[in-house]
Amino acid sequence: MTDFDSTCDLYDRFEKTARVADPVFRDFGQRRTFSGAAVTVKCFEDNSRVKETLGTPGQGKVLVVDGGGSLRAALMGDLIAKDAVKNGWEGVVIHGCVRDAAVLATLDLGIKALAAIPRKTVRNGEGQRGLPVTLAGIRVNPGDLVFADEDGVLVLSPEEFGTTA
């Protein structure tokens, strides 16, 4: 969505307003650099809202999932990630786990998550979409601009980014 050189350069430019996530995420997708407008989901060990959201058009968007940092079950696997690619999503940031890591590495999608685990979640239709979420030490609001690369995840409001863009 928004071209940028690096999260480091963005931080230097927006030092006073940039929100930088704690360095807890690993890269799982083929795409290492990605950015877009945040679409948010809050869920805990139930990936119903993740599947639902990534099944919709996602051009210019990054799904940000507050999974409560759970390391017990994967909130996204290869089938859901393939839907994300098919629907044009730029990337996914999950404060939780993924599965099918070998397949995820082949997909043209930015994927950051805490870890990989074989166990899948339940789908009971729980979780919320479109609300502010807090993960890895930062708050992410729907519509915020998410920038991710090998150095980490940085978030700016559209207004902040527009001030010197």
Automatic annotation (TrEMBL):
GO terms for biological process: regulation of RNA metabolic process. Catalyzes the aldol cleavage of 4-hydroxy-4-methyl-2-oxoglutarate (HMG) into 2 molecules of pyruvate. Also contains a secondary oxaloacetate (OAA) decarboxylase activity due to the common pyruvate enolate transition state formed following C-C bond cleavage in the retro-aldol and decarboxylation reactions. NCBIfam families: NOT-MenG (TIGR01935), PRK09372.1 (NF006875). Its cofactor is a divalent metal cation; Mg(2+). PANTHER family: 4-HYDROXY-4-METHYL-2-OXOGLUTARATE ALDOLASE 3-RELATED. This is 4-hydroxy-4-methyl-2-oxoglutarate aldolase. CDD domains: RraA_family (cd16841). Homotrimer. Keywords: Lyase, Magnesium, Metal-binding. The keyword Repeat does not apply. Signal peptide: none annotated. Mg(2+) binds at residue 100. Its EC number is 4.1.1.112, 4.1.3.17. GO terms for molecular function: 4-hydroxy-4-methyl-2-oxoglutarate aldolase activity; metal ion binding; oxaloacetate decarboxylase activity; ribonuclease inhibitor activity. It holds the Pfam family RraA-like. The keyword Methyltransferase does not apply. It catalyses: oxaloacetate + H(+) = pyruvate + CO2; 4-hydroxy-4-methyl-2-oxoglutarate = 2 pyruvate. It comes from the Bacteria. Substrate binds at residues 77-80, 99. Belongs to the class II aldolase/RraA-like family.
